[in-house]
Amino acid sequence: MPLRSNAVDAESRVCQWINQREALHHFGTYVGATQSQQHIKPLHWYVACRLVLEGGFHPDDITPRPPFTIITRGSKNYLHFDPSTATGGERTVLGGLKTKNVDVVVTKNGIGPVMAVSCKGMTGAFRNLTNRMEETIGECTNLHITYPAMVFGYMFVIRANRVLAALAEELGPDDVAPARQLLANDIAVQEGGAPVESIFRFHSALRELTGRRGIRNDVSRYEAVTLAMVEVSGERAGDVLNDFPPHDSPLRLEQFFQTLYLRYEERYLFGAPDLKSVTRRLEWAPDSPVFSQAQIGQDSYPDLDYEARIVQS
Predict the structure, then answer these.
(1) Across residues 138-157, what is the average pLDDT?
(2) What pLDDT, on a 0 to 100 scale, did the predictor assign at position 193?
(3) According to the lineage, what is the superkingdom (predicted)?
(4) Spatial CA neighbour of 238 closest among 24, 10, 12
(5) Within a domain: residue 3?
(6) Domain count, the chain
(7) Which of 115, 137, 199, 247 is most buried, by the most CB atoms less than 10 A from its CB?
């Protein structure tokens, strides 16, 4: 799938409407300092926009605010693309131990944060992956202490640096400035295509942190966790490795969002029907302008990699 021209404005400080491959292509090919978080920001935007189009959450309830507005006529909700309404940043959430800036948060008036997604990524130094576990467990525990009903998702992406990529870098043309040389610790995929051992160990550790079902369950578990390895070069840059995690793993990206929605429905609709007028997820009119590429323009319209939540007539 070809990328749109200027699909991701890396300097933007507000949420953009992009698809998964555009967000991950940016992550996989970004060459700036990772301390700025610019390599992962587009993934925040992708999650926020998906929570509107697929999840049915009102854009006003999401931080960063996605570039959409809603016009209601009768019983129908018409979704419009409106970049002027988008914002950036993170939302500060009160934790049991300290406040925490969280990447993507859905907040309902009178209830507080009902869903959050933390997006993390690593571009190298994969032997240090296990050091991330303390931070990962601490963030989840901290927020669930104050908001045990909040549905919390953890999305972790890793650059699929290969041995061949390192060799190509060393043997690059003389007139091309060399990129940062990959060290052995930066290799994620071995010859033959299997991830390195440290990534297998990280996957095993993350499996123990997912699957929280009820509000009285372990507060150190996330409701959903996903782990994805991203291609970094050539025509496949931005693609997710298909064979890892294993197809029977609960960390597969295909399951992530649907698990979040299911947990949300169980707690905030089935478990609290009196709050349904506030917590119900919206459905979009099929003739909403947001679904018309002709009205929006080809340069602004991304190919969706999920089904929008359209009302069934």
Answers:
(1) 97
(2) 79
(3) Bacteria
(4) 24
(5) no
(6) 2
(7) 115
- If asked whether residues 232 and 301 sit together in one domain, one would say no
The Cα–Cα gap between 95 and 100 comes to 7
- Residues 204 and 312 reside in one and the same domain: no
Q: Are residues 110 and 252 in the same domain?
A: yes
89-93, 98-102, 197-201: which range is least confident on average? Answer: 197-201
Q: Taking Cα atoms as reference points, which of 168, 145, 161 lies closest to residue 94?
A: 145
Do 67 and 101 fall within a single domain? Answer: no
- Asked if the structure places residue 16 within a domain, the reply is yes
Q: Which domain holds residue 305?
A: 8-89+283-313
* Phi and psi angles of residue 25, each rounded to the nearest 5 degrees, phi first: -60, -40
Answer whether the bond into residue 64 is a cis peptide, omega within 30°.
yes
Assess whether 139 and 228 both reside in one domain: yes
pLDDT value at residue 189: 85
Report the C-alpha gap between 19 and 8 in whole angstroms: 10
Closest CA to 123 of 182, 207, 163, 209: 182
Residue 1 counted as domain residue: no
Spatial contact of 189 and 233, defined as CB atoms under 8 Å apart: no
